[in-house]
Specification:
It is a single chain. The protein is mainly α. 61% of the residues lie in helices and 2% in strands. It contains seven helices and two strands, in the order ααββααααα. A two-stranded antiparallel sheet has the order 1-2. The longest helix has 47 residues. The mean pLDDT is 78.
Amino acid sequence: RVTIAEAVTLTGRARRSLYRDMDAGRVSYHVGDDGRRRLDVSELIRAYGALPGMEVEKPAAESEGATLSARLLAELVELTRKQGETLDAQREELAALRREVAELRSLPAPGQLMPHPDYDRPTRKRQALEPSEGEGDSPDPSVKRQRDRPPVRTFADLLERLNARS
């Protein structure tokens, strides 16, 4: 145990700082038979770290353990980083799959396919060639010929019309 004056010399701190730390409970002390405070050197090292001019050596086993701990910690950090990358990749894949499922859900069911927009095109052409109500005969003779022919409904009708043309 050392006196306050010796503690000031060992730690390099002001006397007032030592008293403040003792009163705050940061540093424990003992009161001697003479009524003066005495401090353990180990308590000063605990509170303030290695004392100036005093070299503290760590046992070999402790430094090997610290090296092992540091190595294990580095491996753990690397493993955590890789897991984070894997998790990010899985999140991206999940988002892509969700978009694909949403796109597939927007398509009609196989039995409910809509006809192609050009499906009724011959009908629309035919309707366009037929005269509207109240219209007279068209001066164009090709329109009259097309109007007089029966509509083509099947492939056989088309072949018949082509044979009649020749």
